[in-house]
Amino acid sequence: MATPFDSKGFLEDQLEMRQKIDYVLNKMKDYFIEKKLYKALDLNALKDMLISFFESCGFTMAKDINDLQMVTTT
């Protein structure tokens, strides 16, 4: 028998993941500014760069709810 979905746990996990992503994006921004690679980057440009990095490593990124249909158990 299936167990009920724990929406509270899901929302907490989602918030934690967003905080971790924001942390990484801010560190990327600091690095690029420190190394003088870019004068200014907005958050969307950084997200695109991070997604490109993951995809170049063979990961598939779900960018919106439609992409979630690609997710499998394997």
The assigned structural class equals mainly alpha
Number of strands: 0
Question: How far apart are the first and last residues' alpha carbons, in Å?
Answer: 22 Å
Q: Which value, in Å, is the CA radius of gyration?
A: 16 Å
Task: Specify the biggest β-sheet.
Answer: none
Which regions are unreliable across 5 or more consecutive residues at pLDDT < 50?
none
Number of helices: 2
Succession of helices and strands? HH
SS strand fraction: under 5%
Q: What is the average per-residue confidence, as pLDDT, rounded to a whole number? A: 81
Helix content: 55-70%
**What would the principal axes of the Cα set say about the shape?**
elongated
Give an overview of the whole structure.
The protein has 74 residues and is mainly α. The chain has a domain at 40-74. The chain is built from 2 helices and no strands. The protein is elongated and about 55 Å long. The mean pLDDT is 81.
Topology:
Elements: H1 7-34, H2 43-56
Features:
74 residues; mainly alpha
Short précis:
By secondary structure, this protein is mainly alpha-helical. It has helices spanning about 5-35, 45-55. The chain is elongated and about 55 Å long.
